[in-house]
Amino acid sequence: MNRKRISLRQELPLLVWLVIVWGALWQNFSPGNLLFGALIAVVVARLFYLPPVELGGRFNLLRAVPFALLFVAKVVTASFQVLYLALARGPQVISAVVAVPLRSHSDLLVTATGHVTALIPGSLVVEVDRSTSTLYIHGINVRNADDAARLRKDVRDTEAGLIRIMGTQAELSALNQEAGS
Amino acid sequence: MNPETFSADTVIDAVSAVFMVVGALMSLAAAVGLLRFPDLMTRMHAATKPQVLGLFLLLFALGLQMRSWWVWPVLGVAWIFQLLTVPVSAHMVGRAGYRTKHLHPELLSTDELEAVVQQAAGKRGFGDDDAATDRR
């Protein structure tokens, strides 16, 4: 197996994350501990070599912070929605499985969209078609075609938000073109 | 009562009390959902969302009560791992449940995956009996 080696710059976010986990688990962020953690992170990343995550090469913090806040707010509404549905509808709840074609073909963005979708109101990823990057989403309380269209739009909006945060330049310009037209 | 201790400690205690009660309520919501919902996939909704929020609220209250900065990264990492793993497990269970037909078709308003699965099952030569008989 001869995999393409990835540059240190691409690997850096992973290493930083491993060092943060190390420091958090020891509850000790002293320089010596972090240095030792960094050493272990490098050894782990070299020994247990996973297919590299292809990052988009950009990360927009200004867009990420509102997105994260909105995400937490959506998690809160999602939880109360499930509580309400469980109490009010219970066995009679109507759902649907909806196909949502995504714009991006990057594994990272499809995964991130799927994760966010699974946690925001009323949706759960059932199946992923990687070749066409289509998510099949089980939506709770989707009673008719209008609800299904709204669910589809929500998921695509989520993806657009993620592209704006960390999509590649090409995906971003395609998105801007779509929004402009 | 000393106004200074009132301002800091009481507020922290009140906030963590509210968070703990709401967090426990979210666990209750997950339990009620598991009992009340009709099929596997609607139950997965109940098992994922309130669970994540409930854990967040309980961890936040814990962080407030520990009064130490060093616990926040651990709690944050714990929650992030929950965020990363919960959708994956829900997806795997939902996917397996869909394929083994643990769902009530009469409770679905549309099902856009069914045709795709039928087609794929027919093409690859495994899957359910209908597809196998179609291929002959």
Sketch the topology of chain A as an H/E string, one letter per element: HHHEHEEHH
What's the SSE pattern of chain B? HHHEHH
> Which structural class do the helices and strands of chain B define?
mainly alpha
Summarize the main sheet of chain B: none
Radius of gyration of chain A: 20 Å
Strand order of the largest sheet of chain A: 1-3-2
Mind telling me the C-alpha Rg of chain B?
A: 23 Å
What does the largest sheet of chain A look like? 3 strands, antiparallel
Q: Tell me the number of strands of chain B.
A: 1
How much of the sequence lies in strands of chain A comes to 5-15%
Average pLDDT of chain B works out at 78
- Biggest protein-protein contact in the assembly: A-B, 51 and 47 residues
Helical stretch count of chain B? 5
Q: How much of the polypeptide of chain B forms β-strand, as a percent range?
A: under 5%
Structural class of chain A: mainly alpha
Span from first to last CA of chain A? Answer: 45 Å
Number of domains of chain B: 2
What distance separates the N and C termini of chain B? 84 Å
Tally of individual helices of chain A: 6
Share of helical residues of chain A: 55-70%
Shape category of chain B: elongated
For the structure shown, list the relevant keywords:
heterodimer, A: 181 residues, mainly alpha, 2 domains, 3-stranded antiparallel beta sheet, 6 helices, B: 136 residues, disordered C terminus
Description of the structure:
The complex is a heterodimer of chains A (181) and B (136). Helix content of chain A is 61%, strand content 12%. Chain A has helices spanning 8-26, 31-47, 61-88, 107-119, 145-166, 169-180; strands at residues 95-101, 123-129, 134-140. Chain A has a 3-stranded antiparallel β-sheet with strand order 1-3-2, with helices on one face. Chain B is mostly helical and 136 residues long. Chain B has 2 domains: 3-100; 104-136, no CATH class. In chain B, helix 1 packs antiparallel against helix 2 (40-66), helix 2 runs antiparallel to helix 3 and helix 4 packs across helix 5 (129-135). Chain B is elongated, with a radius of gyration of 23 Å. The interface between A and B is large, with 51 and 47 residues.
